[in-house]
Structures are given as C-alpha cells and as structure tokens.
Amino acid sequence: GAVVSQHPSRVICKSGTSVKIECRSLDFQATTMFWYRQFPKKSLMLMATSNEGSKATYEQGVEKDKFLINHASLTLSTLTVTSAHPEDSSFYICSAWPGGTYEQYFGPGTRLTVT
Amino acid sequence: QKEVEQDPGPLSVPEGAIVSLNCTYSNSAFQYFMWYRQYSRKGPELLMYTYSSGNKEDGRFTAQVDKSSKYISLFIRDSQPSDSATYLCAMSAGGAQKLVFGQGTRLTINP
Fold first, then answer.
1. If you average pLDDT over each of A31-40, A96-105, B56-65, B94-103, which comes out highest?
2. 8-state DSSP, A54
3. Nearest residue of A to residue B103 by CA position?
4. Secondary structure in 3-state letters for B25-67
5. What is the pLDDT of residues A78-113, one digit of tens each?
6. Which region holds residue B60: left if phi is over 0, alpha if psi is between -120 and 50, else beta?
7. How many CB pairs under 8 A join A and B?
8. Does the beta carbon of B29 lie under 8 angstroms from any beta carbon of chain A?
9. Contact at CB, B99 and A107, closer than 8 angstroms
10. Exposed/middle/buried for B106, CB within 10 Å: 0-12, 13-18, 19+?
11. Res B96: pLDDT
C-alpha cells in the first residue's frame, strides 16, 4: 500500500517550453502533497506544499509563476514548469501525506532536462 | 548555517562492517527524525523514524536521537552490498509537515 506515482519519469524539453509533471497517490487520498527539487549529489529542497482545492504555499525563493502547482483532487497534484530554461534541469520529486500519520510517501521522481 | 548538516561522504566500507551515519541540526523545534534511503534516480524510501530522543532498532538498523546535542545517528550492522545507496536524514517540527533534509551520504558496501 501507500504507493505514489509520477509521470513522466523523465522528460527532455526545449528552452522556453512548458512541462507538466503529475503526481498521483494510487491507493490512498492525500490531504497534502509536497514538491521537492533535487540537484545532483544534493539534498531534497522543498519547493511548495499543496492542499487539495487551495492554493499552494511556496517556499522562499521559489517563483510561483514559474512553478505552477495544481492540486485538483485528493489523489492528483501537478507541477508545471513554465518557460523552462536549462537551469531548471533537475530531479523533481513529489510526496503525499494522507494525514493521521507521521509519514510522507514519496514518488519515484521525474528527471527534467531542458536543452 | 544550514538547519541540517550531513557529511556527504562518499563512504566506502567492506561487506559486514558496521556503518555509522550522522546528522546535526540547529532547530530545537524538530521533534520527528527520519532516515531515508535513496537509490540512484529513485525517490527516497523511509527506513527509520524516531519521535523525540531515544533509540529505535529494526533488524540491522538502529536509529539514535540525542536532542540535547542536536545529533542523530543511523547504524547499519552486518552491512550488505544491497545497502549501497544514498542515506538522507530528515526532520520536522510538526509530524509529516515540511521535512528538512540533510545533504545525504553516499554509501558503498564493497563485497
């Protein structure tokens, strides 16, 4: 149980285009979903926290207009990287929290490469 | 100063060795302490969880938290090549909310 999927697993896009990444909780409803970014050999940095039906809360330094987060249902959150640039290339990981427990369940990650 | 400090390694040990991984932190509000294992190009998976101070053992893994020193440890006994991965400490002040991660230690167990 407690499986979180991400789609796509990897994507290559051209500079200036937008990319959407999906995060789904497959067998539970997620009160809250989190989006992290991880650079090579670096730690996970929280980008934003999203609750179903409300606006995401972004961490300091994260551009909300560049990283659009939508949490349309209790099992789906999307991250859209708008007007992507090479410096946005990174590993993006989501996690889902069902509530009532200490544990977040992490997705497998999406590797974004912007050329 | 980072909220959570973790030696990035890399750390390489022979099979069967005892491995010690550590993190220090500065935020005294942290109450929930976790260790995650991350294989290359994969998402993190939870290994150990400890609330407040104390020890917790699960098979070959032991997690220790010393809140007075703001120091946490993960010990791996009888290490196996399959334990080769990056180990991340993470902590939170409020349950599952807003985890703060260490940099991660890359561990290699040599057969």
1. B56-65
2. S
3. A43
4. ECCCCCCEEEEEEECCCCCCEEEEEEECCEEEEECCEEEEEEC
5. 999 999 999 999 999 999 998 877 788 999 999 999
6. alpha
7. 57
8. no
9. no
10. middle
11. 53
